[in-house]
Design goal:
The chain is an alpha/beta fold. The chain has 8 helices and 13 strands. The structure holds zinc ion.
Amino acid sequence: MATKNEIQLGLLMSVLAACVLIDASGRAADAQTPGAARIVSTNVQQRIDLAADLYLRKIGAGAYVIGHLAPWLCNSVLVEMSDGTLVMGGTPCTPEATKLVLAWSEQEFGKRKMVAINTGYHVDNLGGNPALIEAGIPVYGSDMSVTLLKERGEPMRGTTLKLMGDTNSPFHAIYAKMTFRPPDRLFPIQDGLTLTFGGEVVRVIYPGPTQAPDKVVVYFPDRKMLFGSCMILAGDRPGNTAEADMKQWPVAIRKLGQFPAKVVVPGHGERLDPGLIQHTLNLLDRQ
Ligand SMILES: [Zn+2]
């Protein structure tokens, strides 16, 4: 086991190494260059509270995990790509919370191009869409998510309310009447999606049916950061398994092992380490 000092020293060394690389390549080692040091780690550098139920955790230069307690913790991510474009993976659960993130982002980065990627049709994957679309932000999502939202949107609302149980929660009233909006830029789920911003790529991958038929992951290869969304579990049991494919789910998770991820962001929960892949397999194995 490395001591805390050793870990800190290792971290410092990798930061120094990155600086040397930037200098050697002749590029300006300007900390303000968007995405200049594309290093993320599981060490949270800063926590930014936007509301009682909404916060961001900064895990590297221009890389944030958005936490929305709606009422359980739902994660999405916000990453500043090398050309300055902001990519939102998943969304907070409601348009209101998403608007707060957009307002913060404008304050922090100024006016920037932004794109969003829905990770499924459930409310915790696309609940923020109305706010994004109203703000003129292109929202990417799979063809399957659009079909499922149309066919199962209302049963999904019912399942969400049932899982919450507490009818006094403010989120009960919000989910009971909120409008679900599909993504407005579609991709065939089997093909996935690759978007390039300057020199930096983001990949959307469908490893097969998991916690729901249409969940996808968002991978940032330059940062080795994997947003696993709801197919990656961080708690002590799988949550909503109403539509889960318990046989194919572990098969899909094993495919994620191909990514040399340093940070793995689950759909729910605080943990961010790559051990979550094995943790998910262990939980599914016990079912
Ligand atoms: Zn979820």
